Amino acid sequence: MEIEVRRFYSNLFATKQSKATTIIPQQTKALPPFLPEEIQHSLNSFQNGKAAGEDKLSADFLKSCHSSVHKLLANKFSRYLQEGKVPTKWKSSKTTLIFKKGDKENLENYRPICLLPILYKVFTKCILNRIRKSLEEAQPVEQAGFRRSFSTIDHIHSVQRLLEVGREYQIPITMVFIDFKKAFDTIEPTALWESLKTQGIDSGYIKLLKECYNDCSTTITPFYNPVNIPITRGVRQCDPISPNLFSACLESAFRRMSWPHIKDDKMTTTLPWYQIRAESNTPTIRRRYHLISKLHK
């Protein structure tokens, strides 16, 4: 079993690209140091009662610590920020396989749950709070995944409205729902850093995140013997910044696509494509209201 686990996850987490360097612009100014208030704010965003990682620390414990501990963490994080280096322990994690359904001998039927060091998660949460605004500005208004003050309820209403108008005017509508297989686990790091660079993220934060992803590994213990798996692609599971990195990379991919027009043979008008994006099977429709107005005409 250990051999199968090593083969399956080594192939899943192995990059499919040859080594390519992403040219990151030189940092023009020093990044501001972290404040204790930033540490406290990040800690408050974590839920209570979650399992501890390899460092045996929990968010509950850090929340209960005196403010002097938060000040100490702020100094440590600021040093990592200036040096562009993070502790090696942060690059290792522990993964537990949870059976979902189907054949128990098929590893694809298991959900990997990763436990990361809580200090690493607080650190990346602090970085996310700083770069969130830039990431948000790069996202289209139609994107509701992993964003504050956005909801997929709007998209569900849009889909329902399109169907109602289509039935009312007897116009056939085709909708495509895409479920990306192993989407978070198959993002190439080169594409990730390029997307952050094109979306205006400070080069200092990109270099630091890149350092966090270098030489990462996870340990899986199916029975008694631990299996160490190197990770050279994908975003890290259970990392607070991972969903936002995924959205940034996905948006860069959509920007490079050329969306053709759909021409209806029975009508003289040309209806635009509407984009459907899948993140947890949630559709995102671009220019949906423009399409509804076309249907009304």
UniProtKB/TrEMBL annotation:
Domain Reverse transcriptase intervals: 103-257
InterPro entries per record: DNA/RNA_pol_sf (IPR043502), RT_dom (IPR000477)
One Pfam family from the record: RVT_1
Protein name as annotated: Reverse transcriptase domain-containing protein
Originating organism: Caenorhabditis remanei
